[in-house]
C-alpha cells in the first residue's frame, strides 16, 4: 500500500492531498474486506481438509481451490488498485482544473465590482455635466450622438458573438419596447438637465427604482409590500421638495435656475424620464435571460437613433455646434456613455444587484459636487431635503432586496 502511495505522488507532485487520502481510505477498506474474505476461504478450506482426510485427493483439491480463490482475490485487488490509481489521478487532475477555474474567475480583490459601479456612476455624472455645459444643442441631438456611438461599439460585439440583429421572434416586441422607452428616458434626462439645476434633475431621475417596484407589481405580478408604498411616498415627497410647486410653497423660488416655468418643465421631464426608465427595467425583467445583453443594447441604440433623427427633422432643431469645443464635448458624451455602460455591466457581473444599486447613489453625490464646482451654483436646503428622501427610498429598496436574496440564497 505504501508503494502505491509513493508511486502516485511521484507521478504527479502536485496531487491534491485531500482527494488522495479519500481514495486511500477507500482502497484500505476494500483491501481489508478482501483479506477477511480470504481468511474465510482459508478457514473453510482447513475445515474441509480436516473433514475429508480419509478421502484420497479430496483435501488437496480443496486446497487448490482455496489457493485459486486467493489468487483471484489478489488479482481483483491488484486490478482495483490499478484502476484506483488512475481514478486518483483523474480526480486530482479534475480538482486542479476546478481550482484553476476558481482562481481565474476570482477578481483581484473582492470589491472590484463596487469599484466598477463607482466608475459607472462617475462617468454617467460627467455625461450629464457635459450635456449641461453644451449650449445651443437640443437634447434630442445629444441623444442622437450617444446612440450613434453606442451602435458603433456594440456592432462588432454582436458580429463576433454571432448573436444576430433581430433576436428571438417572441421577444422582438419587448426588444422594441426596451429600445423605445429607454431612448425616451435618455432624451428626457438630457432635456431636464438643460432646464433645471443638474443635481435636482439627477435626484428626480434617480427615483426610478421606486417606480420599478410598483410597475413590476402591476404588470409582472411581483410581490409588493407596505415598504414599497412607504418608499414611494418618500420619493414623491423628495420630488415635491425639489419642484416646489407654487400652490404649496408660494412664490418663493430661491435656488431655481432661470424661470420657474423652465424649472417645472425640467421637473416634469425628469419625472417622466424616471417612469420611462422604470418601464424599461420592467421590460428587461420580462425578457429575463432569454435575450443576450448586447442585443438589448443594440435595440436601444438603433431605435433611439431612428427616433432622434425623426424627431430632429420634425422639430427642425438639427444644428452643428458653433464652437469646436462643443463638438468635442458631444463626442465625449458618446464615448463616456458607452464606457459607463460597460463598467455598469461588469459591476453587475461581479457583484449582486443590491450593492451595485447602493453604489449608484453616488450619482447624486457627484451631481451636487459638479454643480457646485463646475457650474458655480450652490444647492438649496430644499434640494438637499429632496435628495435625502429619494436616496433613502432607493437605498431602502436596494437593502431590502439584498437582505431577501441573501436569506433565500
Automatic annotation (TrEMBL):
Keyword Transmembrane part of the UniProt annotation: yes
Keywords, alphabetical: Membrane, Transmembrane, Transmembrane helix
Protein topology in the membrane: Multi-pass membrane protein
Location in or out of the cell: Membrane
Main location (coarse class): membrane
Domain EamA: 112-243, 265-397
UniProt KW Membrane keyword: yes
Listed SUPFAM superfamilies: Multidrug resistance efflux transporter EmrE
Transmembrane segments: 108-131, 143-161, 173-192, 198-219, 226-247, 267-285, 297-315, 327-345, 357-375, 381-399
Top-rank taxon, per record: Eukaryota
Listed Pfam families: EamA
Gene3D superfamilies: 1.10.3730.20
Protein name: Solute carrier family 35 member G1-like
Organism this protein belongs to: Huso huso (Beluga)
Amino acid at each position: 500500500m505504501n508503494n502505491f502511495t509513493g508511486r502516485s505522488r511521484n507521478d504527479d507532485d502536485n496531487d491534491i492531498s485531500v482527494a488522495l487520502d479519500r481514495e486511500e481510505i477507500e482502497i484500505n477498506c476494500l483491501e481489508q474486506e478482501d483479506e477477511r474474505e480470504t481468511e474465510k476461504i482459508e478457514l473453510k478450506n482447513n475445515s474441509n481438509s480436516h473433514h475429508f482426510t480419509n478421502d484420497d485427493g479430496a483435501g488437496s483439491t480443496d486446497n487448490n481451490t482455496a489457493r485459486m480463490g486467493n489468487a483471484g482475490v489478489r488479482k481483483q485487488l491488484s486490478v482495483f488498485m490499478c484502476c484506483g490509481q488512475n481514478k486518483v489521478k483523474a480526480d486530482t487532475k479534475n480538482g486542479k482544473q476546478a481550482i484553476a477555474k476558481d482562481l481565474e474567475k476570482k477578481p483581484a480583490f473582492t470589491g472590484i465590482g463596487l469599484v466598477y459601479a463607482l466608475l459607472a456612476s462617475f462617468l454617467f455624472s460627467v455625461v450629464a455635466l457635459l450635456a449641461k455645459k453644451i449650449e445651443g444643442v437640443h437634447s434630442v441631438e445629444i441623444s442622437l450622438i450617444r446612440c450613434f456611438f453606442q451602435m458603433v461599439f456594440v456592432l462588432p460585439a454582436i458580429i463576433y458573438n454571432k448573436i444576430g440583429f433581430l433576436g428571438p421572434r417572441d421577444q422582438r416586441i419587448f426588444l422594441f419596447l426596451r429600445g423605445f422607452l429607454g431612448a425616451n428616458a435618455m432624451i428626457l434626462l438630457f432635456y431636464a438637465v438643460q432646464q433645471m439645476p443638474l443635481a435636482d434633475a439627477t435626484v428626480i431621475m434617480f427615483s426610478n427604482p421606486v417606480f420599478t417596484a410598483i410597475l413590476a407589481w402591476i404588470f409582472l405580478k411581483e410581490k409588493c409590500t407596505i415598504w414599497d408604498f412607504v418608499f414611494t411616498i418618500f420619493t414623491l415627497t423628495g420630488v415635491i421638495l425639489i419642484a416646489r410647486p407654487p400652490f404649496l410653497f408660494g412664490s418663493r423660488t430661491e435656488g431655481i435656475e432661470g424661470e420657474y416655468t423652465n424649472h417645472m418643465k425640467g421637473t416634469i421631464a425628469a419625472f417622466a424620464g424616471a417612469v420611462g426608465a422604470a418601464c424599461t427595467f420592467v421590460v428587461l425583467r420580462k425578457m429575463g435571460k432569454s435575450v443576450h445583453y448586447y442585443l438589448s443594447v443594440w435595440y436601444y441604440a438603433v431605435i433611439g437613433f431612428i427616433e432622434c433623427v425623426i424627431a430632429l427633422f420634425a422639430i427642425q432643431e438639427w444644428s452643428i455646434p458653433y464652437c469646436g469645443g462643443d463638438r468635442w464635448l458631444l463626442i465625449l458624451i458618446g464615448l463616456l456613455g458607452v464606457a459607463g455602460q460597460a463598467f455598469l455591466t461588469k459591476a453587475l457581473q461581479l457583484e449582486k444587484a443590491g450593492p451595485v444599486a447602493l453604489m449608484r447613489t453616488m450619482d447624486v453625490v457627484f451631481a451636487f459636487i459638479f454643480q457646485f464646482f463646475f457650474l458655480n451654483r450652490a444647492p438649496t436646503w430644499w434640494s438637499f431635503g429632496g435628495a435625502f428622501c429619494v436616496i433613502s427610498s432607493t437605498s431602502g429598496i436596494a437593502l431590502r432586496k439584498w437582505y431577501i436574496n441573501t436569506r433565500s440564497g
